[in-house]
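Sequence, please.
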């Protein structure tokens, strides 16, 4: 398993959350978002929205699988776009 801590530049409300989930779903790896003590499946729209990720907040992305590095690279780029 690989993980990265990232500062989010834009909130993940409904539309950005859906795009984030679509991006995460492109990968075979198991992917999770972690904030404080909450850990959710990054391929779940309800999970991502329930986290209430705000701009400037730090999150950790965890990926486990054959394409974990590619997944982390793409999701980090997504979260750092404004």
């Amino acid at each position: 398993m690989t993980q990265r801590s990232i500062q989010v530049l834009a909130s993940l409300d409904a539309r950005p959350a859906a795009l984030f989930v679509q991006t995460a779903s492109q990968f075979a790896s198991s992917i999770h978002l972690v904030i404080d003590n909450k850990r959710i499946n990054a391929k779940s729209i309800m999970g991502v929205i329930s986290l209430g990720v705000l701009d400037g907040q730090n999150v950790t992305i965890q990926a486990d699988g054959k394409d974990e590095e590619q997944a982390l690279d793409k999701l980090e780029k997504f979260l750092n776009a404004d």
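The beta strands are 2-7, 30-35, 38-41, 58-64.
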